Amino acid sequence: MNRMQDRRFRPQLCQTASLLALTIACGATPAFAQDQAAAPVTASAAAPQTTQPAPQENATAPKDESTAASEIIVTGTRVARSGYTAPTPTTVIGTDQIQSAAPASLADYVNELPALVGSTTPRVATTGASATVGANLYNLRALGANRTLVLLDGHRVAPSTLTGNIDVGLLPQALVERVDVVTGGASAAWGSDAVAGVVNYVLNKNFTGVMGNVQSGISGQGDASTFKAELSLGARFAGGRGHLLVSGEYHDDGAADYVTSRDWFKSYKVVNNPAFVAGNGQPRLLLQPGVGLGVATDGGLITSTTTTGNVTSSGGPLVNTQFTAGGSPVPFRPGFKTGVLSFGGDAQDVSQIIRLGSPVKGGTVFARASYDLTDSITAYGEFGYANVKSKIFARVYERDGNITIKADNAYLDSATRATMTANNLASFTLGKMFLDWGPSVGRNDREQFRYVGGLEGKFAGGWSWDLYGQHGETKFLNGDYSNNPITANFNNAVDAVVNPATSQIVCRSTLTNPTNGCVPYNVFGTGKSTPAALAYIYGQSYQNITIKQDVVSGSLRGEPFSTWAGPVSIALGGEWRRESYAATTTALDQTNAFFLGNFRPSNGHYNVKEGFFETVVPLLKDQPFFHELDFNGAVRYTSYSLSGDVTSWKVGLTWDVDSQLRLRGTRSRDIRAPNLAELFQAGNNLNQTINDPQLSRSYSVQQFASGNPGLVPEKADTTSAGVVYRPSWLPGFGISVDYFDIKIDKAIYSNTAQAVINLCQGGDALQCSFITRNPATGPNPNQITLVKLLPLNIGGEATRGVDFEASYRRNLSDIVSNWGGSLNLRMVGTYVSHRTVTVGGVTTEYAGQNANFDQNSQAVPSWRWLASAGYDSDHVGVTLTERFIGAGKLNNAWVEGVDINNNHVPAVFYTDLSLTFKIPEFGKGTQIYFAVQNLFDRDPPVAPIYGATGFLSTGTNGYLYDVIGRQFRAGVRFKF
Fold it and tell me: What tens digit of pLDDT does each residue of 766-782 get?
């Protein structure tokens, strides 16, 4: 950290230290869950039996003492059976692991698991004007967030977006006692969307007492601040028959600075090689630093001219003239031009305006009351509220050489006007990036309500049942940009002339329409905007969306009979669900008036009826080589009101050869039904820069995305097989290896505008039907004007690889009698050998590719792993963590030296350190903790986006790599 960074950091550190001191002094110390034995990090590693068995092995995750082991359901199965191990690998993250890492948010910790790739977070550094900015969306297996089912205590929650995604920032955090991550298909157990797996937040619903947590953090650069405060209260009443629980959480995460604040930012882009000629030994592409736009500058750049005879030229005396900040014309050195980009000259990088992180502020409230109506029946009700506000730092307004300036423009300098007169020029086109306006700043505001009421109980023979109804509602405001030009108003304001009657500068349109309100704008140079001109140019584009979900569900679990090997367990039930939404917007949005937004009003709904059955059948027990052999089978029948009927199923085996060695495997059919956006969205227009292979040039077009009610559910076939080894000769050690293979048929796929154009060029008639071009004669002949994006069941996706997990836990006193405390070692890793997408008969391999073409699921490193070493005693805890992302390529299809000069992305290690000091003198469970993330301030490698939005790339992949740098956190937690 340099001295300037030190100075920026010290005030924040002092503030944090003061806050902690005040918190301790006041006794308002926040939190740690409840007293419990240390829960292992993962269950699929089948951590050895030491002080506490692994959660998946017997489902004994952290729980209240009053909860029987037989009632615990680990998310890999719906069967509740003591001692049962589901064949589907399930990673279980306990409270102790979360607390020892002291993450800024629970999502930050979960996303470190190697099975999650390309998750959306507020720190991905994009300029997208998207409904997902500021959200935390889990993405298992890089199959997309809409194929990862997120649950809260085994219940669905109302979607946070029309695409069905769940922003986990809206879920209650303070009471989470464990997170179950099912890394395989689970549709037969939990329904649609569980193609890649399930992430289930399990709450400590039986907590009694008071616990809390206060944490503050800052980056080494003095930005990206974090703050959170949590408080939970639980009490019993009516002689213990009733229980009341209230929990709240508030967080305020500040924005990160512009990308130019980091020294790793060098404006890397992938560009065409100007020296390339077929056969000359030069690569056709370059990974090049210092790349910017060659068609626009901050002050304005002349890109073409038109004579009074209507002849357009990209050469001539004015082309490559730029305007200084003051508006004076000077030569522009284009350097090497490549499409809309250039390097080696005066080009400016429009991506310099990108923020490294979006600010997010909000909180959640969770309340639950339960009452034992009888000794065997309990009634309960839950209420959840969340309000999260995020800022969108979208791209700056930019016109790539398509602003028309006529010879009589009132703001034109005399020298340029004289040149136009001398050369009989009627107009020229100007390219300009409006960096002085700053990025368009919008917002994503989400407010969510959740109401649950239910009954649960038991009856003779160990049977248990539950019945509940749930209503969830998400209110979502998207857009509302602060500086979003109305295109027609901008064009009118730029076309400024002198009114011959008054000698005043006015808009040309005002001469014929005096009451149109137009205010002229000087487009030459920077800082020429007047408040009146901007008030006329800017407009407000937004949409208000209300998403509703209603659920009625019931289930029954028990053991109806036994075989020679043990009791047969079953779980069965049914569910009815209704998903609906309504979106409203402005009148101007519906006319495509804006640079960003252009939303459409829409609405829609569908109903789902489901029935499921699951069983565990012991086949053999206590036989030679068959210590235990269990069959697990499940089936679910689902009827969609729009998409038809579909059946999902699962079969699996667990085989304990002996007390040390376990084999397991599953085969399942999983589904994902089309979501509300894919079915009903009326669409919205965005400006998108594309490369037109037919005309061999780049320019901006309108893309229009809409829904398709004719979609049918995706179907996936999932296979997993693994081995778990817990050697008796090394107490405390366990290791597992699991193979996975997922193949998706009829995948719902929405192409990007560029992909539609490329597929059409390759002869795909369907994709050609989505493209509108100008006539062959007239202005801009054959130029694309519109690309329609429509979701279709035309894709196939697949992934294959291996998960590795190992853990070793040992009380040091077992090794050295005078030593106290325990040693905890763990490693979780994933190797992906295969991740393909097939569209239009073309299959693309993404495994081993560490950069994105256009979508975050297109970067899938071959190797990711997480390893940690921890020491824990009665007074102190220390954890050192290593995160690894393996080396890869920018594009698997490129050959280095032939297609590109450098196709290599190096491997990256990140080191995290956390310290915990336990202070029982200030209350039971009181702890002060400190954490440093990215301890050695490792810069992200060069891995730029290189698709249609490549000109906006920061030069790295924020979905994989840390773009913030070293971060510090400190806090206090307590419980009594």
Answer: 889 899 998 887 777 88
